[in-house]
Each structure stands twice: as structure tokens, then as C-alpha cells.
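Hi support team,

I submitted a single chain yesterday and got back a structure, but I'm not sure I'm reading the C-alpha cell output correctly. Could someone confirm the output below corresponds to the sequence I sent? I've pasted both exactly as they appear in my results page.

Thanks,
R.
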Amino acid sequence: MRIIMAGASGLIGSDMAAHLRSGGHEVLRLVRRAPASSLERRWDPSSGELDPAHLEGADAVINLSGAGIGDRPWTRGRIDELFRSRLDPTRTLAAGMAKVDSPPKVFLSQSGSNYYGDCGTAVLRENSPNGTGIMARICSEWEAAAHGAPAGVRVVTPRTGVVLSRRGGALGRLMPLLRLGVGGPLGNGRQYWPWITLPDVSSAFSFLLQAPVSGPVNVCAPEAADVNALIAGLAGALHRPAVFRVPAPVLRLVMGKLADELLLGSQRMEPAVLTEAGFAWRHPGLAQAAAWVAAKD
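Hi R., thanks for writing in. Yes, this is the structure output for that exact sequence:
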């Protein structure tokens, strides 16, 4: 397949591009600077600039664009940037597809588990309602923008959970502490984090390119885990203790709104669509995932 990818330079995008190329696919990256190779095409989503010729002959478009959620404090300006960095690229891609004679057959546009908001212990499947909060609203508008793609394009909006990797990503700041034996759960630890390993994210997106699936897809492992279990599993695989709990009031003091939405909120997400479609996880259980994260290669 000939695949156009936006947001390919991040942790997920880099791994996914390599995974797809290893499977024999051609991956062309959309970049905001001057192209550095024949596999790059320039665009400017902030101004809606995308040459429709870049999409000609493409079989699929993958959209991973978006500013980092936890990189900076949530000031009013930053929240606006979180919206714009997701909606502008998605709308630009959807509009570009409408301008070509033969649009791509499939549009995979990233969303997130925060679509559901804070739902405690309720099991969340793809038909569960949209929650409340800034991130829930961002995800809802993000998905709506993706469905602006022209008729005939199969639109998939993967609601991806916390991605476990050996470096970087959502646990990028926590993993070094766990390796040193000075990490621990966040808040009371009873909040559920839908998790998935980086290799399984790339495999899931590759699977969704060709599976007869459309609409929202929960991208997480089938084994649910709260933060206490997740941190204990990772620390155990690293042969380190995890006893330094960070109380919720401290997190709120340091991080403000970020703490409640990203760290203390609970989404017990179930990958119902992936399971029914026959997707096979490399790391379906927490023990397998933790062992992979802790391994050196």
C-alpha cells in the first residue's frame, strides 16, 4: 500500500512507519519544513495548505498529528494549541481528500482513551458515551473532523490508551524513576489506565488499514489494569520496589487540571472491536508487556 502519514516523527509515528515499511508498504511523511528526502511531502496544516497531488495514488492516510498533552502546563493558550494542533491537520487532510479524483480508501485518524472522560470502574466499549472534560471534548471534535472525509473513504478513529515503551511516551518521566527504585503509584492507584505496548499499537494500526472496520476503535490490551497493578507490574519486571506513592493533592498542586484528566482519571476500556475483528496482540497481558518494557533489546 501507498500510505501518507502525518505526525510521523513522534514515538508512535516513527515506530509505525518502520513497522509498515518492514511489511512492504510505501510510507510518505507529511512535514512542515522543506522535504529532506523523496519520502517526504511538505504541507502547512495551520493554514490549510496541502497540495492535493500529495494524496493522488495513496491507498491510505494515517493522521497522528497533535501537540503533546502533558508537555506543558494547561494555560488557556496551551489548551487552544491542543485543539488546533489536532483539528487543523485533520480538517486539512479531509479537505485534501475531497479534491482528488480517487480519494484514499481508508483514513485512520488518531483519537484517545480520554474521549470517555473519568468513568471509574465502568467497562467502556466503543459505543460508550462521550465524557466530560477538556480532553473528552478535544477527542470528540477530533473524531468529528475526521468524518469530514469524502463519501467512500472508510474512516477509523482509534482511541489509543497509554502506550508502554522502553523510552519516551506517556511513561517517559516515570520509567527512569521506576528503574532507580524511587517510583510509585499516582493518587490512590485505583484509577484504570487502558494500556498497550508500542509494538501492538503499530500492529493494530496496520491491521486496521485492511480490516473491514470503521468508526471508533479502542486500541488497548485486553487485560485491564489499574495504576496500582500497572506500576507494580512494571517495577516487578525491573526488580525494583515501587513504594513512593504520589498523593492526589500533590499532583493537583504541581500539575493543575492536567493531574485530574491525565493521571487521576479512570477509563476501564475494552478493545471490543479489535477482539471481534480477530486482532492478535503480541503482549495481551500485563506480565508480558512489563517483561518487554524491562528487556534491554
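A quick pointer for reading it: Residues 2-294 form a domain with the Rossmann fold fold (CATH 3.40.50.720). Let us know if anything else looks off.

Best,
Support desk
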